[in-house]
Amino acid sequence: MSLLTKKTIKDYMELPEGTPYQLVEGELIMSPAPSFEHQRVSGRLFRKLQTSIEDLGLGIVVYAPIDVYLDEENAYQPDIVVVLKDSKARVEERGIFGAPDVVVEILSPSTAYYDLTEKKDVYERVGVKEYWIVDPKRKTFEIYSNSEEGFKLTSQAKKDGKVRSELLGLEIDLKEVFEEV
User: Which of 39, 60, 112, 123: disulfide with 128, CB 3.0–4.6 Å?
Assistant: First the structure.
């Protein structure tokens, strides 16, 4: 399998399990291991979502790495995904097929460009209902809701503010996500 030609989901599925790549618009993009701060923020946010979603029986919350197959040229491994009970996304052994209800990307230097541009555009196009962008370095949190006009910024905060997911009916205090312990 040549890395220079456009790839498809079929090519991506032939990669060995655990290969550190994502398929972005037909291009295999390597994703190195995330930093300590990235993982700490991700873990805290996952726990908050798990108690708010899974413990109440509203759906499932999955922590990276998990393959999310969006279309023939896009398979991502978001940091956290939420699939609600009535979702069109299918959860299978190989991963999640279709647009999850919520996708959380925690920015890191190696992936920020893709998270903020190409992946964001694809998430919007395939129907992800909310896209959350969390920046541990700047301590910012943005929630975009998908509408007929595309993603609209519906909640944002910095450092010790709060954000609200209308879809999940959930408020998140950034101190719980970013605070030093």
Answer: 123
